[in-house]
Structure formats: C-alpha cells, structure tokens
Design brief:
Growth Hormone, Chain: A; MFS_trans_sf; 16 helices; globular; MFS_2; about 450 residues
Length: about 450
C-alpha cells in the first residue's frame, strides 16, 4: 500500500543523500571562506582593500539573484519535481566556474581586479542556481518538522565534513601540487574539489524525493513577496543569519593571517600532514560536526529559539577569551576555537531547520507553498554574510597597515587580533540577541504541523 506522504518518514539512505549535497557546497564555500582572501592578497597580489571591496560590491548581484532563483524554482515543473532538477543541471557549470575563480592569469593590477569581479560574480550565480533549490528541497522532503530537523542534522554533518576536508587537506594539497608555485597549487587543488562536487550533487539528486507536492504556482511575484514580508519571524531569522555568518567567516578568513603573523607558527608540519593553520581549522570543524550531531537531542530538551540565543552568547564569550591568549599558548587557542565552532554547529543546524519552519508557517497562513522564495533567504544570508565576513578582515588589514609577507608592525598585529576575535564576537552576540524577536515557538509549530497534515491528508485522499 502506498504510504501517505503526510506521515512518511525519511530513510537513512535519503538523509545521507540529502546531507551529501552540502558537502559539495562546502568544498567551495569552505575553500573560499578559508583561503580566498589569502589567495587574492598573498598569492595573486591584489591589495586587501581592493579584494574586500570586490567581495562586497558583487553582493549587489546576489541581492537580486537569490530571491529571483527562489521564485524561478517555485514555478518549475518537471518530472523530477521543482527543486531536485537543479542539482542535475547546474553541477557542471558550478564546477567549471569554481576552477575559473582560481585560474590566476598573468594580468595587470587592473586586469586582475576585473577578472576577480567577473569570476567571483559568475561562481556565486552558479552557487545560487544550485543551492537555493537544494535548500528549498528540505522544505518539501518531509512534512514533519522532526524529520526535517534530522535531515538538517545530516546536512550539517556533511557540511562540516566538507569544510573539514578543505581545512585539513587544502594547504597540504596546494603544497603537493604546486611545490614552490603556490598559484599552481591552488589551481590544481580546486580541480579536485570541483570534480568531487559534481559527483556528489548527482548522488543527492538520485537519492532524494519531493514528498510535498504543492499545486501549480499561480500567484504573482508581487503577491508572494508581500506574503513573505508579512512573516516577521522570517525577517528576524534572515538578519540573525547574516550576522552569524559574518561572524563565522570573519573568524575563518582571519585564521591564516592569525597563525602566520600573530602566533608566528604557520610554517612546518605540526600534526600528521597538517601545519598549524590546517590543524586549528580542522579541530574547529570537528567541533562543528559534533555540534550538528547533538542538535536534535538539544531540540528535544528545549525551544529552538532559546538554544539559538544561548549558543551565540557562549560563542561570543569564547571569542573574547581567545583575544587575551598569548601567542605561545597555541593549544589554548585551539581549544577555545574548537569549543566556539562547536556552538556554531548547533546554531547553523538550528538556523536552516528554522527556515523551513518559516516556510511551513507561510503555507499555513496563506495556503501557498513558497519554499523556494522563503528558503532563498537562507542562501542570501549565507552568501551576503560570507561576503561581508570575508571583506571586513581585508578592510581591517588595510586600516591597520598590513603588508603581505612582511614582518608586521604592532598596529597590524593588533588589527589581526581584533578581526580574528573581537569583531566575530560582536556579530555572534548581535545575532543571538536578535533571536529574542523570533515568534515561532514549539507550541505554534505543533499547531501548524497538525493543521497542515490534515490539509495534505485530505488532498491525498481526494
């Protein structure tokens, strides 16, 4: 007998298949967050301020492309569903444009900057075209919030593994492929991650289903947008997500500079194949993985909103503590960083599960499933936050007189410490406090789920 999609549970295979998609995403986003600013300044020779400005200016395109892609995906009709087809169609363009970003041709200073603007804009458009539908898929993969939280858990387990792979392997691979030629090393390393991304996105496409089948979308773009803007919790979640991602990416974008110029311990192998930068990044990402693993258990004990607030506040405290750790206490820095990223693993898992809760709230209020448009906010917050978080360290480096590959002044070292610890702490604190205004609590969500399940069961039986 065919199982009612209103109550159907996700298989372990499908949870893994869905989760793998974010591993493919984080092969790129993790790589960009950890190494793109370093690549532009220390490897390809773009000034920190120019690179930072580029990362911000290109977000104008994203401000349009994310909701536009959500609207397009919501209106897509195919034999594979609304959102899954983009995992199949966009994987290869996504891979090729990632390679283009690290091509590093010999150009004038102006030519390099122009190339950076074009290549970064294109790769982020490809990221939008594949990841907005991927995120929206979570909202239709199951009508049960608990099942979506479990799928989100798998998503961020594999997201953590993807970024962990980058953190642990990228610099050693750059050295292995490039030797003394760091530019060649980056170019060949991204080829490896590009090929893996294509294969994994196709696995996600093959192993997932769209259980919630909304009616053909007949409302106008204006009607959908107006309905979305009336969802106050969605607005709070979007701005909180931006602040949180800014804090995380500012921290990660600073680590290569922090270990090289403040800790003074960037050179040589420290553990197994890893230098000290790779090691601290890897330990933090193990913490993120553990955070994602424990999140469903934490959700059973408390409200998502409360967990979000406290996890962000704790991360802020740990970052402030890290600011006061002296350069010689490397192990203490690793421990504080890892504990902080553990809390982020909890936060990011909750954040994306709560976006789908907002999508359900919108369907409950309006009768229209606009998962693509609603969840596109998650991608906008991720990309905009990543851009701002990656750009701010560049501006701070320029402001405090940083000069690449030179012994730094006391002022420059202070700037590196501020951008690595104090600045991220401020953003995590702000993101956590903003969640006070989020209104979809556990009781409200249970009511929404029950009423939507009744509607879907009636449609199924009809």
């Amino acid at each position: 007998m065919k199982q009612n999609p209103a109550t159907e549970r996700l298989s372990f295979k499908e949870k893994i298949g869905y989760g793998l998609g974010d591993m493919a995403s984080n092969f790129y986003m993790g790589f960009f967050g950890l190494f793109l600013l370093y690549y532009y300044t220390d490897v390809w020779g773009i000034s920190p301020a120019a690179a930072a400005t580029m990362l911000l200016v290109t977000k104008i395109v994203d401000a349009i492309s994310d909701p536009a892609m959500g609207l397009i995906a919501d209106r897509t009709q195919s034999r594979w569903g609304k959102y899954r087809p983009y995992l199949l169609w966009m994987a290869i363009p996504y891979a090729l444009l990632g390679y283009l970003l690290f091509l590093g041709p010999e150009l004038s200073d102006f030519g390099k900057l122009a190339f950076a603007y074009v290549s970064y804009t294109l790769v982020m458009l490809a990221y939008t075209a594949i990841n907005v539908p991927y995120s929206a898929l979570l909202a239709v993969i199951s009508p049960v919030a608990e099942e979506r939280t479990k799928a989100t858990q798998f998503r961020f387990i594999f997201a953590s593994l993807g970024t962990l792979s980058v953190g642990a392997m990228a610099k050693p691979l750059v050295n292995f492929f490039g030797g003394e030629d760091e530019l060649l090393g980056f170019r060949l390393t991204i080829v490896l991650f590009a090929v893996l991304s294509v294969l994994i996105f196709w696995i996600t496409f093959a192993t997932t289903r769209e259980r919630i089948q909304p009616k053909a979308h007949k409302s106008s773009v204006k009607e959908d947008t107006v309905a979305l803007l009336k969802n106050g919790s969605w607005i709070v979640l979007m701005f909180s997500g931006i602040l949180i991602v800014v804090g995380l990416v500012a921290r990660f974008a600073s680590l290569a500079f922090y270990t090289k110029y403040y800790l003074g311990q960037d050179e040589g192998t420290f553990f197994l194949w890893m230098d000290r930068t790779s090691f601290i990044v890897s330990c933090g990402l193990v913490g993120q993985l553990l955070g994602a693993l424990v999140t469903p258990s934490l959700v059973k004990m408390g409200d998502k909103r409360v967990l979000m607030i406290w996890a962000n506040l704790l991360h802020s405290v740990l970052l402030v503590a890290c600011y006061f750790v002296p350069p010689a206490a490397y192990v203490t820095t690793v421990v504080l960083h890892s504990l902080g990223i553990f809390t982020f693993g909890v936060v990011i898992t909750l954040l994306f599960a709560m976006y789908t809760d907002c999508a359900e709230y919108g369907e409950w209020k309006t009768g229209k499933n606009c998962a693509g448009l609603t969840v596109s906010a998650s991608m906008f917050s991720l990309k905009f936050g990543s851009a701002v978080g990656g750009a701010l360290p560049g501006f701070i480096l320029a402001w405090f007189g940083f000069v690449a590959n030179q012994e730094q002044t006391e002022s420059a070292v202070l700037g590196i410490r501020l951008m690595s610890n104090a600045l991220p702490a401020l953003f995590f604190l702000s993101g956590g406090l903003l969640m006070i205004f989020y209104k979809i609590d556990r009781d409200t969500l249970a009511k929404i789920e029950g009423e939507l399940a009744e509607r879907r069961t009636r449609n199924y039986e009809a």
